[in-house]
Amino acid sequence: MRVTMILPALTEATGPARRPVKYALFPPLGLATLAGYLDPDDEIDLYDEHVEPLDLAAMLGARPDLVVIQPYITSARRAYQLADMFRAHGSYVVLGGLHVTSLPDEAALHADSIFLGPGEDTWPLFLKEFRDGHPRPRYTSTLRTLEALPPIRRDLIKRHHYLVPNSLVVSRGCPHHCDFCYKDAFFEGGKSFYVQAVDDALAEIDRLPGRHLYFLDDHLLGNRRFAEALFAGMRGMGRVWQAAGTVQSVLQPGLLERARDAGLRSLFVGFESVNSPNLPDTRKTQNVGRDYSAVVRRLHDCGVMVNGSFVFGLDHDGPDVFARTVEWAVGAGVETATFHILTPYPGTGQFRRMEAAGRIRHRDWDLYDTRHVVYDPVGLTPGQLENGYWRAYRDFYTWRNIGRSAATHAHPRERLRHLAYAGGWKKLEPAWDALIRYGRVLDALPLLERTLTAFGRHRPNTAADAGTSIPADHERPAAGAVPRSPQGGFAASGAAPD
Ligand code: B12
Ligand code: SF4
């Protein structure tokens, strides 16, 4: 059987303008996972439009038997366009993933079969039924397990296109239920948080070349027993890695130290809002009352860099939210920041509430990219919100503020590392663009590995190393009465600094 798999791109990733490095970070892991279920003698082509232009004439002309497309909300329009073209040329087209699960009737107009929820149970069933000649139009996942997964077909990934080819997930979902998150809609009808067997996860890690790993799990620290066993197994493997975790989990005594000892060097943390009344509104109850500044201090004392995620436009935000957020993040010494304009995703409680209140402005999914205002905000005009969002990026990444933020570290080596890491993301955009265009972005990986390795050098005699308590402040500025924050779907959405 001839199979074509496509991760379509959103416009920004393919346009003539400079390409943000974020689109050349991670390979299409979901599709490579699904490819693992295909037979060894199936002919599979896997395309990621974020990093390679599609030669559509050749692809359509090859008339694949099966075309598998994964739309995100921002690439749904493009995904449907491709699906329609392949169907018109006689291929059988299937669509699945998060956006399809949120809006199945919309997706069904462009596919022969659609898949709701994770694919581990329905995908192999479909393949059997497809080969037998009687596939169904709709498959809904109910059985949730990561047991006995076939190996991910990483051989199909063109590694040289990615800065972080070694991305992996060892769990699915998250134990929390935030109102704006994709998660509850996607996992409806079954478990919404489950983990791999630790031995399987370690075996997958062992298969990955080089040193660097990026865990794309929504919340790698969400199941403590699993996380501790995983980190124990990873100790001594010589890996350096990055991941996402909640504010709450960072503050748990002992867990972060184990992660650090296993190679954690940078954590994506959803600080989301400097206005604490926003938290209960969005059902971020698990993080209400936590101290943001203590989170940053604790991560730094463990030798872990912070990628902070913030969302603007929640109902308690006014025009001052941008400057206050940047000021807090810089003062706390956050290395990199990802800012988002609040975006209600279809399928979430937040979308339903806003729709009922008549606050959804349009359904142009291309603009649901967290850079555009797609709803009516309460305390800001849409113009203030968009301008403030861009200003926050500019202000956070001025050399002056990068320098101020770096100066919060106690040790000169860490200050230098901070400057290199933050400056590297935002100040070297032309260099990233060139590496991406020439397909050489992987060449920058050793530099990333060196930066991460040096940052996490073990520093004994801090309270954090004792693994029992939140360390005392050293030379950092007091961050003031900053609210306490959540991890979030917005946090998870970026995965890397934007
Ligand atoms: C890594 C990541 C990225 C990376 C790269 C994505 C890539 N190369 O795959 C980057 C940084 C580029 C990125 C960018 C963005 N992202 Co993003 N990203 C993620 C993240 C953290 C992990 C994705 C992943 O690899 N998961 C692991 C794999 C194994 O799972 P999977 O891809 O979902 O695939 C499984 C199932 O969905 C299913 N499946 C998927 N497709 C199909 C198809 C068929 C036929 C079948 C049967 C099954 C099936 O089976 C797969 C195997 O189990 C997710 C969060 C998450 N937990 O998924 C957000 C997430 C996907 N991103 C999101 C968003 C919003 C964005 C951005 C708009 C954010 C922004 N402000 O820029 C952009 C634009 C994305 C785009 N190109 O359109 C949202 C999507 C919301 C939605 N409803 O679509 C998510 C869910 C985060 C969130 N919580 O809101 N992202
Ligand atoms: S927003 Fe984050 S913490 Fe909340 S449910 Fe989603 S993944 Fe979990």
TrEMBL record:
InterPro entries: BchE-like, Cobalamin-bd, Elp3/MiaA/NifB-like_rSAM, Methyltransferase_Class_B, rSAM, rSAM_sf. PROSITE patterns: RADICAL_SAM. The keyword Transferase applies. Keywords: Iron, Iron-sulfur, Metal-binding, Methyltransferase, S-adenosyl-L-methionine, Transferase. Residues 459-498 are annotated as: Disordered. Its cofactor is [4Fe-4S] cluster. The keyword Iron applies. It comes from the Bacteria. Residues 160-378 form the Radical SAM core domain. This is Radical SAM protein. It comes from Streptodolium elevatio. The lineage of its organism: Bacteria, Bacillati, Actinomycetota, Actinomycetes, Kitasatosporales.
